[in-house]
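Before any further analysis, backbone shapes were mapped to integers, which produced the following:

***
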Amino acid sequence: MTKADIVNEISKNTGIEKVTVQKTVEAFMDTIKGSLVKGKNVYLRGFGSFVVKKRAEKTARNISKNTTIIIPEHFIPSFKPSKSFVTKVKNNVK
């Protein structure tokens, strides 16, 4: 499902114009991205959590040059679904 599909589905279910729904969806995503960039987690009860995870420093290999490189610690965005969300997917997807 793409962002356009989501906009169409919400517009169909609510009767709100697609342009308004698209602006709302984009504002929602921008708000979540902005929050994560600031290091703040976003919790949506019954849906899941958008969290910032810290990745530790690690040693990796560049196999083409046969050298070792060090990847510094860094932060990445992550999504953790709620238990009710996971349960619904487990029980309904076959």
In short: Helices lie at 3-14, 18-37, 83-92.
